[in-house]
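Morning!

This is the sequence you dropped in the shared folder:
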Amino acid sequence: MYATPDDPRSRGAGDPGPAGRPSPSAPATLPVILAGFLALPMSMSGAGVAVPRIGADLGAGGAAAQWVVTGYFLTASALMLVAGSLADVLGRRRVYRLGALVYAGGSLAAALAPTIEVLLAARVLTGLGAAGVMASGGALLAAAFTGPARSRAFAAMGATAGLGLALGPSAAGWMVDALGWRLGFGIFTGAGLVLLTGTLAMRESRATTRPRVDIAGASVLAVGLAGLMLAVSQGPSRGWADPLVLAAAGAGVVGLVALVPVERRAVNPVLNLALLRRRRFMGWLLAAAAMAFGYGGVLAFLPSYLQSPVGHTAGSTGLIMLLPTVPMMLLPTLAARLVNRGVGPAALIATALLVLSAGNAWLSVLHPDVGIATLIGPLLTVGVGVGLAAGIIDAQAMNQIDTDHAGMAAGMLNTVRGGANALVLALFGAALVGLLTLSLGEAGLAGRVATGNIPTTGAGTLAGHLTDAWRVALLALAALCALAAVITGLLVRTTGSRTGAAGARRPVPARAGTARPGSGPGSRPADR
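The structure's back. Tokens below.
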């Protein structure tokens, strides 16, 4: 089995001492990590606002310009698990520092890019840096905090990331309008340098052993994840039978299938397959995916509906989309406090996902004349569900593994979130287009209507069809979140074992002469 974070056997270099007592560098570590989890999600969610202006300035078509967003997202999502595993071996502060430097360099190159090709390369580089910052950032928190302090730290991280994700489009819109897209990227260069400087106050943390880097596993995993995410992100726009989509999907499947034998032979695998047999850890991964599904579609597609057919301006749409931000900022800390005071994490995450389900179902009151007053309730409810879930998922997932694997676990959490976001964006958009095609009988027109480009002729009828498609999609998301609430609650529940603070499993004494928990080829999880 794996040792737990509170087990003295599980402490890596730079880890805290007695359970619940933060490391000496913890007060300096937390604000730097939070700054990263504010800036990077803003960069991820806000770049889409600049796409039209970038396309016009650099003479790029819409498809090419859209890769400014896709290139960053795919690179970051595909490499987070690799970055997290490397951080465990090479040092989490070192990988965080290198990630911040690469992120700053990529942002600067994007700001100065003379052509769309250079800009796309710069965004890929920025995504590479983001993977290092986000994966090692979660691992640094896991190493610096234990017990209730860890729950509070990860709750703050969840609230900050949600805030950055929600504020991204509004902040990016202001920067593009007031400063231009080049200076908008330039500002994130400064953010990367701030993170780089902040690492000077951090304490290094790594696994207790320094094995060789699993280059083969890292390469196969990166190809597999990148291929699948590329296929999912491009399928709706290019068609699922497009040669690029099929080739990407094929490469992704082959890569992930080949990963299993590669990792079984690796001395220090980049993905320890034993993690995937841990029931409670997999339950928290499912919760992370369900949270992304329950909020991602609304965040990405609702703004276009509010502008057309509803008729809100871009400014008022931005204000409406800030409604979920309030509970997303306030409730993560409350959720962590509830767990620290004895509320069961299984019951709390199930409640959070059920609230998220209710918010999506309530949002089906959408209609072409909907007012802000009607939207306040459902959007706040969605925010409550996300806020409660974000406050406990990371800390509880980290409590299921030993600190030596903190980077791997943090990378896996962020990879699951990235994959779920890519999937919900693809499926939600495809569902709208598919439902509209059934009702309108014309795929081209359905695609235009789904994105808010509604012709004036027959606008009322087309708006009605779009609204019907939205309601079906929202109710499907509500059902999915409700199902995930039940399954997650069953997976993460504690059965017949004692638990410590914040839901962490209490350590089981090792027998003399046994191998380090979780490191041997025959190791087994304790809660299968």
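Headline: The first helix runs from residue 26 to 46.

More detail when I'm at my desk.
O.
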